[in-house]
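Morning F.,

Quick status update on the modeling queue. The single chain you submitted on Monday has been processed. Sequence for confirmation:
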Amino acid sequence: MSAEILRGAPVAEALCEQLKPRIRALEEQGVTPCLGMIRIGAREGDLSYERSATKRCEALGISLRKHVLPGDVTQEELLRVIGEWNEDASVHGILFFRPLPEGMDARLVCDAIAPKKDVDGIGTRSMAAVYAGEEHGFFPCTAQAVIEMLRYYELPICGKRAVVVGRSLVTGRPAALLLLREHATVTVCHTRTQDLAAAVREADIVVTATGHINTLTEEHLRPGQVVIDIGINYDERRQRLCGDVDHEAAEKIVRCISAVPGGIGAVTSTILASHVVEAAEEYAGVK
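C-alpha cells below.
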C-alpha cells in the first residue's frame, strides 16, 4: 500500500478563504496590504519562491513591490532599500531571500527590518518574542506551514514523537519550537547526530529541512510515519526538483508524505500572505 501524498494546494486554498474577508475589511478602510520583496541575484530557489509568492499575492489582491539587486550589491545599498521600506507606511511587510552574499553581516541585515514588518520572522527581536511565547512577532513562514499542513490533513501532533532533521534558524529550529507548542515531544537532529537512521525511525512525525538530496532513505523510515519534506533541491542533471527524502522508497513505507514539488511551497507563500495581512491590520488598527 503506497503512502498518502500530502499536497499543498488544498491547504493553501483553505487558508486563502480565511484571508479574503480580512482583506476586504482592510480595503473598506482604504488599506491595501503590501509586501516589499528584495531579491539579490537570480538563484533558482529564490525565483521559484518569488513566483509562488507573486501568484498568491496577486490572487488575493495583496500589492507586491519588488526590488531586484545585483549579486555584487553592497551591504550599504541593501540596508538603504530596507530603510526606505521601513519608513514607507504603504509597505506592511518586508521580505528578502537568504543566504546573503558572502561578506555581508547577515544578523545586522536581518535586524535592520522593523519588527512590525518582519513577516518572515528573521530579526532577533522577532525571534525573541516568538520563542518567548509572546503574542507579537511572526514565525518563519515555512515552519508555520508545516503545522498548517498537519492540521489540514487532521494528522495529530499532541503527544506524538517528532524528529526535525536540520537546525537552521530559518526552518529547523522554529519548526521544532512550533511542534513543541503543539505538545509534541521533539528531537532535533543534525550533521553530528550519531546514528541518524535510528533516531528518525523513532519518530511519528518527521520534518526534514537539510537542503540535501536523499538525506533520508529507506533505512531511516518505518511504517506509520508522517513525513513533511521541506527540502528544495535539484537532481544531478538539474532537471527535476527534489526534496530531502528518497520519495520513491518512502512512498512504499510511510503512512503519508508531503509532495515535492507541490507540497509545502504553496502553503509557505500563503502563510507569508497572511502575515502581510496581519501586519496591515496592525497598521490600520483592525486588531
